[in-house]
Amino acid sequence: MSRERSALTAPTVLPNEAAACARGLSKSYGSGEARVVALDKVDADFGRGMFTAIMGPSGSGKSTLMHCMAGLDSFTSGSVRIGTAELGALNDKQLTRLRRDEIGFIFQAFNLLPTLSALENITLPLDIAGRTPDKEWLDTVIATVGLASRLSHRPSQLSGGQQQRVAIARALAARPEIVFADEPTGNLDSRSGAEVLGFLRHSVRELGQTVVMVTHDPGAAAYADRVVFLMDGRIVDEMDGPTADAVLDRMKDLDARRSR
Ligand code: ADP
Ligand code: MG
Fold first, then answer.
1. What is the mean pLDDT of each run of 10 residues along the chain (260 residues)?
2. Number of neighbours of residue 256 by Cβ within 10 angstroms
3. pTM of the model
4. C-alpha 248 to ligand 1 mean position (Å)
5. Domain encompassing residue 183
6. Which of 112, 164, 238, 259 is most exposed by smallest CB count within 10 Å?
């Protein structure tokens, strides 16, 4: 899938086709001697309807980038835009609403409530918000995740892959602008992982969802349209149309560059 990217070269104009952008995004933890720069002036655009993978060594800032962009963590400087909203310009109430309506987050641990059925887990955030789910959308999401026959099951009655698919359906239920997934297959065997990755890709292709996924697995990254490589809090490389072999080669190059 190739997209016109010329708009990205204009430094002050945020490209319309991006579901989310970071500009000069920096985040440090601690102060003085103990100060850690987790993100160092990151510029990133996540195209609408695109599946982007984020890769990089442990500690390179992948989770920090996701959390800062999803409004789950504050940042030190720079800006983040989700849809038309500048995160820095929002008050707490607006930020809460944005997180609820426009951002889906999928964690490595599925974080399902054990006493609720699959369907109840999926609609829980909407129920808490007092919103009526869009029935047609919900049916589409459930059909796409292939959970229609499992809706009354409790999490303990589902496989790991099925549980993660429930968590993905939950993240998609509000029809968010963007879904962030931090190592969503980290707790799954390779077959369940493939199931989840296939579904994430399907949600991009068939439902037009925008997905950004952290992974350390080249095979998982190959499901994405684009890979962004992070190192020491900076974006050091990008790849369009990744294959597992190409990603693995690039990782070796980056490792070699690093240890030089
Ligand atoms: P990754 O997800 O790529 O493994 P992280 O974003 O979790 O990396 O971490 C980036 C850097 O920030 C690391 O050096 C890590 O030790 C540091 N870091 C992350 N969270 C905290 C925190 N809460 N307090 C202090 N340092 C942190
Ligand atoms: Mg991480």
1. 41 63 97 94 96 96 96 95 94 93 91 96 91 89 86 95 92 92 90 88 90 96 97 96 96 84
2. 9
3. 0.89
4. 23
5. 18-28+40-259
6. 259
